[in-house]
Design a protein that fits this description.
The complex is a heterodimer of chains A (116) and B (109).
Chain A (H helix, E strand, L loop, with lengths): L3 E4 L2 E4 L5 E7 L5 E7 L6 E6 L6 E2 L6 E3 L9 E3 L8 E8 L11 E2 L3 E5 L1
Parallel strand pairs in A: 2-11
Antiparallel strand pairs in A: 1-3, 3-8, 4-5, 4-9, 5-6, 7-8, 9-10, 9-11
Chain B lengths: L2 E3 L3 E5 L4 E8 L6 E6 L6 E6 L3 E5 L2 E6 L4 E6 L8 E8 L5 E3 L3 E6 L1
Parallel strand pairs in B: 2-11
Antiparallel strand pairs in B: 1-3, 3-8, 4-5, 4-9, 6-7, 7-8, 9-10, 9-11
Classes of the chains: A mainly beta (116), B mainly beta (109).
Chain lengths: 116, 109
């Protein structure tokens, strides 16, 4: 793999179900992010991680959780999915943390999630 | 609150020049980014401005005026493949990226 891999590409699930979106990067970037993208809105940060073992809340963290056990993987879990979590989810990474500038993000291809 | 404004949609002709504007009001400023996003794909980095002035990169240029809270992305010699959404994002004083909703650029032959 090269860059960031997200899985699944798309998923339809029933409300109340638990779902984990997977994200793996092979660039050894220290920082990773989860965004959601909805029509008419800018990308909104859900959670981020500046380095392995640490995570932080973004703009819209409610209903989501993340873990960063190692540098490469940053899964996003919806504990009990609701229809308002229907969105396209992008994982991203960068080689700069939140305390430095020129934070260029590399994005995964996205995961389209529909909650019915 | 923090806000990024850019036009929702623009149309231009193949071979022409188009300017996409972005205005911002944020808590501090640590840089402005432009990303390109083709339909159904991931955003990809285009340019970064942290000082006032024009940054040129091939057919694409990006301008920044910090005093006016204003940037534009200039695309020259438009090609059909430039049809995409262009996202403006500002890094605030907490190094958080604030994103605009994006400008959908339609290129006509």
């Amino acid at each position: 793999i090269a860059g960031i891999t997200q899985a699944p590409t798309s998923q339809i699930l029933a409300a109340g179900r638990r779902m984990t979106l997977r994200c793996t990067q092979d660039m050894r970037h220290n920082a990773m992010y989860w965004y959601r993208q909805d029509l008419g809105l800018g990308l909104r940060l859900i959670h981020y991680s500046n380095t392995a073992g640490t995570t932080g809340k973004g703009e819209v963290p409610d209903g989501y959780s993340v873990s960063r056990a190692n540098t490469d993987d940053f899964p996003l879990t919806l504990a009990s999915a609701v229809p308002s979590q229907t969105s396209v989810y992008f994982c991203a990474s960068s080689d700069s943390g939140q305390d430095s500038g020129a934070n260029v993000l590399t994005f995964g291809a996205g995961s389209r999630l529909t909650v019915l | 609150g923090q806000n990024i404004d850019q036009p929702t949609e623009m149309t231009a002709t193949e071979g022409a020049i188009v300017q996409i504007n972005c205005t911002y009001q944020t808590s501090g400023f640590n840089g402005l980014f432009w990303y390109q996003q083709h339909a159904g794909e991931a955003p990809t980095f285009l340019s970064y401005n942290v000082l006032d002035g024009l940054e040129e990169k091939g057919r694409f240029s990006s301008f920044l005026s910090r005093s006016k809270g204003y940037s534009y992305l200039l695309l020259k010699e438009l090609q059909m493949k430039d049809s995409a959404s262009y996202l403006c994002a500002v890094e605030d004083s907490n190094y958080q990226l604030i994103w605009g909703a994006g400008t959908k650029l339609i290129i006509k032959p």
